[in-house]
Input
Amino acid sequence: MANETESLNFIEHIIEDDLSSTHSKDKLRFRFPPEPNGYLHIGHASAICLNFGLGKKYNAPVNLRFDDTNPAKEEQEFVDAIKRDVEWLGFEWDTECYASDYFQQLYDWAVQLIKEGKAYVDSQTSEAMAQQKGTPTTTGTASPFRDRPIEENLSLLEKMKNGESEAGEHVLRAKIDMSSPNMLMRDPVMYRTLHKHHHRTGTDWKIFPMYDWTHGESDYIEQVSHSFCTLEFQPHRELYDWFLDQVYDSDKLRPKQREFARRNLSHTVVSKRKLARLVEEGVVNGWDDPRMPTISGLKRRGYTPESIRNFVESIGVGKRDNLIDVSHLEFNVREDLNKIAPRVMAVLDPVKLVITNYPEGETEWLDAENNQEDEAAGFRKVPFSRELYIEREDFKEEANRKYFRLTIDKEVRLKNAYIIKGESVVKDSEGNITEIHCTYDLDSKSGSGSEASLRKVKGTLHWVSIKEALEIEVRIYDRLFSDPSPDTHKDKDFMEFINQDSLQVITGYAEPSLQEAKPEDKFQFQRLGYFVVDKDSGPDKIVFNRTVALRDSWAKLN
Output
């Protein structure tokens, strides 16, 4: 039992109440039940952390169950991606299960329901069935096939199973209550015919169970004690329990469904259907595009498992759906990367800096700290020479007193190096600055211990030696949508809010230590942000994705 002084969320209170009344701790079992019709997204991360977190808290097994009952949309690719994502987040499942493992048992139970007069084959069109179901304020009317003889129902179901009926010709419906105030209880469909190849059962089955029929019975077969779903499944709970009533054996544990709120993320969408549309219409480059809210996309963007788990923990478990600002997710990855990411220097909008009094042809190797947050990270060597790149925005020919970067007749420090003073500029025919000329103070070298090196200046700039600079491709990612909640506008398609500037590809220059960087290696480009090596990198080109800027630039704009 949990310590009484421990703060529990409402889900944990449910479990604690059950442990004090109906359940024993050794019978607890949880599950994460994704449908393999797309990649997992940040919303799934909440469900993953909830269920696997409960498993860890109560030392109980957690099943990974694939609800693979719709072969028209499900693929092995999605199964593999889901398993990778759950493992990457740091969780291990007890048993890998598939709803398709239970197709025969589900079918046998359906036959049993027909024999008991609790299910029938309906041959109406889907439009006719929808019409006779009624509305929330009017009762439904019975199907003309509701009282079909049991033997005829069994014969038709067998023909459906054998593929002797066309898709949509018949469905199997539970016989419950056409006047129920819960529309889901008005003779719900249990089976439909689909002549599709299934990723695991091939063409063995021609009929496939619906979600509501499959879900609770799968929980029961696996002896899952608590089945946690998002709030949209709350109306389904009555049907979940009705289906369980038909097969429940009192000698076995009975699963309990309870619901928690979704945590939606701003400036994105988390509907698999809408995410699939972004992929299919080429708005993004696949399910793992770094702009996608998929776990694979976040991983490729440079997010860490720790940052996502911390984010999920910080927003908690609630009873009301709400919109979480994406800046909160970004805060968590900044916090984590600040601790672990090595600091390096890269210039993304370069302008040439010439130190006129530095010896021509000479290269000096200076010590640079890898991470001031980690004493064990040590130092690396960076080359310094007469000609450097600095950021174009770090120089102004004329500036006011509040500008603490380089300008004419003003001193700044070059990070890990010397103090320099702006002297003059070279411009092209259009008046653009092509070179900045400056002088350096030989005695101001960082860490030299000399009095001059201790001299304070207000500005410090990062830089890269041109001669040894490594050319890199840098992908600057921004929020995929310009609107905080793009799919809540009734009169507009969510695609209308696509941020056309969500990706900018530029050429930058980095210190040569990055030559050996490998995909998924993460760095802080000093003064610029956090970046990760992309899988598109090769021997001739290193590609970096920006994970997040050092500060929330959107906060200034909104």
